[in-house]
Amino acid sequence: MASTEKKPATRKPNAAFMKPLTPSPTLAAVIGPGALPRTEVTKKIWEYIKKHDLQDPANRRNINADAKLRPLFGKDQVSMFELTKLVSTHLK
């Protein structure tokens, strides 16, 4: 008998996530001025957070803002779940 197993569907990247977006001057201070897809923007912000040890030691889900991140976040501390929402307002 022939096997009737389905091959796993290959996942195509969503075009909206791959479209390069231009960061605002506030965001560019953290990630650089070049246009990047949303996925790369998020990666670069996390690189910055980890490099400067900005995760709250008591609750690692919270990010403490330094001088560059405070204007971006609009407050002293945000949760990792708020991060993409706040950053998306700085992309065009």
UniProtKB/TrEMBL annotation:
PANTHER family in the cross-refs: SWI/SNF-RELATED MATRIX-ASSOCIATED ACTIN-DEPENDENT REGULATOR OF CHROMATIN SUBFAMILY D
PROSITE patterns: SWIB_MDM2
Top-level taxon of the source organism: Bacteria
Spans annotated as Disordered: 1-20
Pfam families the UniProt entry points to: SWIB (PF02201)
Gene3D superfamilies reported in the protein's UniProt record: SWIB/MDM2 domain
Name of this protein: DM2 domain-containing protein
Residue span(s) of domain DM2: 16-92
Organism: Alcaligenes pakistanensis
